[in-house]
Structure formats: structure tokens, C-alpha cells
Amino acid sequence: MTGRRIVSIHFPYLAIERWERVMERQGNSPADDIPLTLIVEGTHGPVIHATNRTARTMGVQIGARVVDMRAICPELQTEYADREGDKAALERLVLWARRWCPWTASDGADGLILDTTGSAHLFGDEDAMLIEMETQFSLLGLTSRLAIAPTQGAAWALARFGTVRSICTEGEIAQRLSPLSVSGLRLSAETVLLLQRLGLKTIGALMNVPRLSLARRFVKAALTANPLVRLDQALGKLAEPVASVEAKPRFSAQSRLPEPIFDPAPYLPQLCDNLCDALQNAGMGCRYLNLTVYRTDGDVSHIDVATAASTRDPVHLHSLFRDKLERINPGFGFDLITLTAGGVEAIQIVQTQLGGEAHSDLQLTQLLDRLTAKFGPRSVSYPVVYESHVPERAQRRISNFGAPPPQTAELIKERPIRLLDIPEEVHVLYAVPEGPPAQFIWRRKNHRVTRYAGPERIAPEWWKDRPGTRLRDYFKIEDQTGRRIWLYREGLHEDGRGGDPRWFIHGMFA
Predict the structure, then answer these.
(1) Which residues touch 371 (CB under 8 Å, ≥6 apart)?
(2) What is the average pLDDT across 116-128?
(3) Separation of alpha carbons 364 and 382, rounded Å
(4) CA neighbours within 13 Å on the CB side: how many for 398?
(5) What is the DSSP string of 240-256?
């Protein structure tokens, strides 16, 4: 079957079924014969948000006021709905549903949209795939209605108003939608009521109305109040783009398990091998890996690792998960494991040495990856050059996995191999009018200058330094023992920014 295939999944009782599962876990589940509803605050008092089976059989309606429903059901019990919890549960289901296809998105407060184009053959056919979906959701305790069609609008209408597990092809959209109610076009309640008063109760009746008449009546209406636009979307005459939660992964490997397990470690080596084979065939490497386990209770658990450089070495990538697998919360077990590559980029093949040893740069990179995986990304960093005249600002340290900034700065002047974090002040014994002192005391030792070079003047950075900051004159000196020191004078005589100049040692040369 060709063309785009969209699956719409509707959970008509998501709120009450999730609440019942929570109460069951807490041991406070009510009896089945008690009429129970979830309520929310309305304009004129609490209104019904969701009902259980018993309440529905007694005629309790969603959207009605609680006081009105108590008149027909005096024993009605009420609990406040957890809308935020329902929203979070639906967001987890969006990711959990990616066991069937890589593109999933939420659809309102009680539905999902899946783009299963090219995925049905993995499960046999579309009918078998819908049965598999319905079975898995029933194991989660959720009632679901499903339909598949070439457009999102048609799938949405068939899932809510069509037959069980409806399957619609490209040429059957108009025929399958004709007997359905106009509510299947995702219109607002006010627009549906207006169409029904005009005698347009079905989508087929709406199709028979001249387009010009509908365009004149609803030309300025919003999307949910414009039946003509909604009809065109359902029939495929008008595009309806929908963004998934995240982009489709380019490289991924997965393991489907016959029964739930609690430890993914035995399957991880094979996943790394399969993923690295796919990367190697494409001439690519990855910087990030995401391990995801899909739990049987409808939740997912993630572990992320990163590398200092692009790689496709399965042994090395597997070693990065060694101390992290215990962070996975298996719940009641999981039956699907996926390994996805991120930060994918072209990688050059590194030629090994004649003796068969690995390249030294690769060994360093793998060492950094192992240290970061064990101690965390903030514990491993490296310096990069930064544009600044002030020596202590001329470099910055970034994370091992951070993208290095552009190296626009260059070290034009000679700098010491060791720079003190805080310059240490020295006591001058014999000063010289020009040049460094002839003799000074540093760290309780007397140092006599035998030769020097300089000065190199460094002015304050007015856009960063506070007013009154003094300039520096740096000298490269050598004392009587042959030690080469980087010494600077802070300030000048009578510069109006303080008293006499002060001398500091900032670093040591080789």
C-alpha cells in the first residue's frame, strides 16, 4: 500500500482509567458498582470531567454540573481530576508509542498521532499492527480506539466515529467519511450546533453543499470554526503539517524481547555492534548515544552518554555504559530496548601504526571518555585560547564534550609554561629607575636579577576592568640561579591611580 499512512489513537477514558490505576496501586480502589466521576471547576460550580462505567450506565454525562447529575444519581461520588498528571501521562505515551514508528505526537488531551508510513510490514500488515497497538494499550489498562487513513483528519474522524480498527485507503476517504457526524471534522461545539441547525448533520451532507456558499459563510472563521478547511484537510486537499516531539533519529538499533526483563546489559553489546555497523556503512561516527528502555507499565527510562570525538567503536561505546546501567528504573520490566546515535557526522578512517597499536590520539580520546563517564562531564575539561590582552583572561576551560569556540586568538608573545592563579607580590630591595628591580625577596628568598628583557606593556581592558585599574609592565628576568621568571610592575609613578608601583611575579618560564 503506497502513500502516507496516519494512525489516530483515541483514549476515551484516559483520565478515569489512569485515576483507577493510581488508586489500585495505593490500595484505595473503589468498588466497581459505585458511580464515580472526576470533576473540575466550572463557571457555575463543579462539572463532570470523566466517569466510570457505572456512572455512565446511570446516565451521568460529561460536561454537566455535579448538582444536576446528583438529581438523577444521588449516590454519585466525586474526586477532583488531575489534569497535569493526565497531560504528563500522555507525553510519556508519545515516547512509548515509538515502538511502532519513529514519528509520534500528541493529539489534544486524549489522543496520539502516529505516522506509520512504511512501518506496517514489520508487524505483518496494517490490521495486525492495529491489533498489536490495541493489545499493548489494553495491557496498560487503557481503552483505545484506533484508525488508519492517508490524512490525519480522516484518521481522527474514523477513530472516534467509525468502526473498530478502521482502515481507509486513498480512494475511500470520501466514502468512509460521508456517514459520520460533522463532529468528526474537529470543529468547535458552537460550529457543530450551527451546522446541525442548518440540517447538515453528516460529513456527506456537508460535501453536497456548494463550496461557494460555505466559503461566504465561514471565510473569516478560525480553523476550528471553519468546516470547509477542516473538510479539505480530511480529504487530503489541504496539507496539515504536525511536528513530532523530536526529529527522527538517523541511526538506531533495537531489541524486541519475547518477555519483560529487568537488566539490559546482556543485549547492549549486540546493540552497539548493530549501530556501529550502520554507522560504518554510511561512513559516519557519533558523539552521543541514547539508551532507552520501554517499560510494560507505559513509561520509558533513558541513559545518555557522550564522547570527546566522533567514534564508531562498539567496544568503546559499550564501555561508557558500564557504571550507568544501574540508574535505569525497570519498573515491572521492559520488553523493548533502543540505542540511538546523536551528533552524527562524517568520520575519517585513522590509519593505525605498523605495529598494530592504536593511534595515540584515539587512546587519549577514549581515556577522556572513560573518565567523564565515571566522574561526570564537569570533572573533565581542557583549556582553549581566548581573545584578551590580560594574561589570566587569555584562556578558558570548557567541558570535554562542549563544542570548542572558534580559535581566533593567537599567542603572538612568548608566555611562561606556568602561570600562577594569583600573582604573588614581591618585596623590592634595590630599585632601578628603568627596568626591573636589581634585587627582591620572593617566598622568603633573596633573588638577584642577572639579565632581563622587556618591558611589555599591557593596558587594562576598559570594557571589563573597574575605573582606576593600573597598567602593567612585564619583564622576563633571570636570577642568579638561572631561574627564569615573569615579573611585572603594576602602575607608574604619579599616574594618579594610586601610590608607588607594586611588583608581582605572574609565572615561570622553562
Answers:
(1) 379, 380
(2) 90
(3) 13
(4) 11
(5) -----SSPPPSEEEEEE
- What residues contact 198, with CB distance under 8 A and at least 6 apart? none
What's the average model confidence in pLDDT over 447-465?
Answer: 89
Exposure pattern of 323-362 as b/e (b: 16+ CB <10 Å)?
Answer: eeeeebebbeebbbbbbbbeebeebeeeeeeeeeeeeeeb
Task: Evaluate whether 105 touches 95 at the Cβ level (below 8 Å).
Answer: no
Name the pLDDT band for 129 (thresholds 50, 70, 90): very high
| Spatial distance between the Cα atoms of 401 and 304, rounded to a whole number of angstroms | 13
| 382 vs 41: CA distance, rounded Å | 56
- Measured between alpha carbons, how far is 457 from 203 in angstroms, rounded to an integer? 83
Residues recorded for the chain: 510
At residue 258, what is the residue type? P
Instruction: Assess contact for 134 and 11: CB atoms under 8 A.
Output: no
Helix (H) or strand (E) holding 375: helix 360-375
**Site of grid cell 566522533:** 310
Compute the radius of gyration of the chain from its Cα atoms.
35
Quickly list H helices, 111-169: 126-139, 152-161
Cα 291 from chain centre: 13
Q: Find all residues with CB under 8 Å of 301, minimum gap 6, and list them.
A: 292, 293, 295, 328, 329, 330, 331, 334
Helices 227-235 and 152-161, packing angle to 10 deg = 100
**pTM score of the predicted model:** 0.59
Query: Sign of torsion, CA 53 57 63 66?
Result: negative
Q: What is the DSSP letter of 102?
A: S
Q: At a CB cut-off of 8 Å and minimum separation 6, what does 37 contact?
A: 16, 48, 49, 50, 51, 52, 55, 60, 66, 69, 76, 77, 78, 79
Whether residue 145 is predicted with pLDDT greater than 90 in this model: the reply is yes
The separation between the first and the last C-alpha atoms of the chain, rounded to the nearest angstrom, is 74
pLDDT tens by residue, 80-91: 999 999 999 999
